[in-house]
Amino acid sequence: MKPINVGLLGIGTVGGGTFTVLERNADEIARRAGRPIRIDVVADTNLDLAKKVTGGRCRLTGDAFAVTGDPNVDIVVELIGGCGVAKDLVLAAIDRGKHVVTANKALLANHGNEIFAAAQRRGVTVAFEAAVAGGIPIIKALREGLTANRIEWIAGIINGTTNFILSEMRDKGLPFAAALAEAQRLGYAEADPTFDVEGIDAAHKLTIMSAIAFGNSMKFGDAHIEGISRLDSSDIKYAEQLGYRIKLLGITRRAAQGVELRVHPALISARRLIANVEGAMNAVLVKGDAVGATLYYGKGAGAEPTASAVIADLVDVARMLTADPEHRVPHLAFQPEAIVELPILPISEIVSSYYLRLRVEDRPGVLADITRILADHQISIEAMIQREPGEGEEQADIIMLTHQTREKNIDEAIVRIEQLPVITGRVTRLRLEGLL
Ligand code: HSE
């Protein structure tokens, strides 16, 4: 089937990630979308960079307005950012009847009302999953998955830079300035970190979520915004002594007279899951009246996590342009003709790490016998402890953690270990999942 042609505006970090992931997963994406999605043309002021990233496998131009008006382009992806030329380009694309995908939170928080009105008039879609919390599909969750609910509140860690800084301040006892310098050294924070550390980036994202949650228009100008630059590391320490962590939270809540819309540092009980979101990760809690509290966690920035959200929007638009309304989202996510028959593996073929507990006679050579059997089956030990025999006991417990291996290896090794005369009873075997 004829591919969907994408015009990509901006091939920086996220644009590059989008190009790479679209190429790498082209077959799988086409099986889901119902037709191939290809980047037909890229516009960037840095044509050398564009050539390097694309390897010359699509058209390049320095004129982004030529892309918004290009009759070959079905969808315009705006990854330039900011409210300057990006706004003109998005409005120009809409005016030319193009669907738009954007990751531009500042643009939508500040000018979303105007942009959505223009798209409504022109009958095109503006999709923006990548604008909030990078790779976490929170827009889809709010707009579709939770659609039965009266949303009561949303609270999110939606800026990775500030969360990284707060983690550094807590873990290493660093003052704000030193933690910021570390974030800059590692590339988490921009040279001018104002948008992140003063809470503006988080407020852009919160404004978008709030509008979707409550059916409100975008009201970024009314948000209360406090950042973390005046936070003292002693407060992080005292909060911890009281059982709390300090996080930069974006909170929006439906109240009797209106909506709370606020970004500021806040104490959260260390026992809450969201308090344990560390480093540059993002997490969003959504409380619905029917479902209760739900939590969404993942990478909120970066080339491929954000590309993941951009491409999800591209697939949505491609399905809309391709399928009958009744068959827009395939039952099994892939188009019916793209379903394949993959075998489900027997449990003996899975790969896992293992916890083993063995009860053994406490005498020389026992451990050597056990480790020899494990080595014979290519099983590597990651950690081991031995619990000495108690008063009057002759036997000791040995507990081992293994590196990853195929389950049949561990099962064969256990059969042999249990035949050793120094082993008492059965070996206890539990799977240990790294979930990486
Ligand atoms: N600068 C943002 C963050 C990512 O630190 O989370 C893009 O919004």
For the largest sheet, list the strands in their spatial order. 3-2-1-4-5-6
**Shape assignment:** globular
Question: What is the count of helical runs?
Answer: 15
| Major beta-sheet overview | 6 strands, parallel
CATH superfamily of the largest domain: NAD(P)-binding Rossmann-like Domain
CATH architecture field of the largest domain: 3-Layer(aba) Sandwich
Structure description:
The chain is an alpha/beta fold and 436 residues long. It folds into three domains: 4-135 and 303-336, Rossmann fold (3-Layer(aba) Sandwich), CATH 3.40.50.720; 138-298, 2-Layer Sandwich (Dihydrodipicolinate Reductase, domain 2), CATH 3.30.360; 351-432, ACT domain (Alpha-Beta Plaits). The protein has 15 helices and 17 strands. A six-stranded parallel beta sheet has the order 3-2-1-4-5-6, with helices on both faces. Strands 8-10-9-7-11-12 form a six-stranded mixed beta sheet. Helix 5 links the parallel strand 4 (75-78) and strand 5. Helix 1 (13-24) packs across helix 13 and helix 8 (160-172) packs across helix 9 (176-185). The longest helix is centred in the last third of the chain and has 20 residues, at 303-322. The model has no long low-confidence stretch (mean pLDDT 96). The structure holds L-homoserine. L-homoserine (HSE) is lined by residues 159-161, 196, 201, 300-301.
